[in-house]
Design brief:
Elements (H helix, E strand, L loop, with lengths): L1 H9 L8 H13 L5 E3 L2 E8 L7 E7 L26 H17 L8 E6 L9 H7 L8 E14 L3 E3 L2 E4 L1 E10 L3 E2 L9 H19 L6 E10 L5 E2 L2 E10 L2 H21 L3 E8 L4 E3 L1 H15 L4 E3 L10 H5 L4 E9 L17 H19 L1
Parallel strand pairs: 3-4, 3-5, 5-16, 6-15
Antiparallel strand pairs: 1-2, 2-4, 6-16, 7-14, 8-12, 8-13, 9-11, 10-12
This protein binds zinc ion (ZN) (2 copies).
Amino acid sequence: MRTWRKSLHEEPELSNEETRTRAKVAEALNGLGLRPTTYAGFNGVSTTLTVPRAGPTVALRADLDALPVTEATGLPFSSKIPGKMHACGHDIHMASLLGAAAVLKKNASKLRGPVKFLFQPAEEEGTEGGAARFIDRGALESPHVEFVVGQHVAAGVPLGSVAWKKGPMMAAADHFVIRVHGRGGHAGYPHRSTDVIVAAAEVVNGLQALVSRMREPTDPVVVSVGMIHGGSRHNILPDMVELEGTVRTVRAATRGQVEQALRRRVKHIAASLGTRATVTYREGYPVLVNHPATTELVVRALTEEFGDDRLVEMESPTMGAEDFSRYLNERPGTFLFLGVGTPQHTAPLHSARFAPDESALVNGAAVLCAAVEGLQRA
Ligand SMILES: [Zn+2]
Ligand SMILES: [Zn+2]
């Protein structure tokens, strides 16, 4: 697993560019005696471990892509490609899944059903995502998948522990672009223009009232503006300002309500200052909802494997997003957080200094094997 991980870590590839990564995963699977399936125009790899005994098929998933970050960990196997890094730990996910494949292959005669391995590209894409395209290409069929299990490294969970949650675990993530249009002019004579900078500032503040005044306080919502672009000089009022941001919600009904409220509010704020706003709103990944009964079976098996004290039940969902949610919309299953947090290592995911401890590989493989055991025993 260490060897696979080092090689994957050294050559990170961004979403939808994972051809080298695909080749490495396929080669590793071939080495284990598992015939990989690859796809035209899609960088996923899948394989099925067939076993003598009939039973439910469990699908295990890892993601392949890296991020546009320049690595600053100082690790001896740091990224060789400037501006690209496995800063989200997907190298750990892949190597653990390959490790699990090796263990399960060796124990095929003891398994109570087939296991399908899904190596998915483009998780970080954030728009359609690789999971949707993988499902379109039959990821959950032939053999028909009964349960899906995935995991993600988590810096907020102690190394050696696994965090789990029934029901909603991660948020839906949507993306919006707001353009405020007006009539620019001389900044010394604002009354002769319609000031889109002031209107945009009111829009940013006004959006926060969607969260604090229009939603139930116990129903988490995040609206963040991450980019503002407008203007060319300190004494010129521009014609247009563009704002881009993200909306995170946990309830399906809330998602639609926030979109409608955002559109209405932005238009009215802009109009009240004599400007005009257009809103482009695009839905990203849906809410990730863990199937309660399936999660219970997996947690029971993990408790036997790791012991009570290493399983952490999450109190509330995180506002991050994951396109594993798409598999969970098709089949019962569960997503888990694999702890990589230590007191010495505090760099968060997506940071240039994110360097999870290697022992996460063994833990990750053990989590996946135990999950298969628990689901097929049921
Ligand atoms: Zn990520
Ligand atoms: Zn990730």
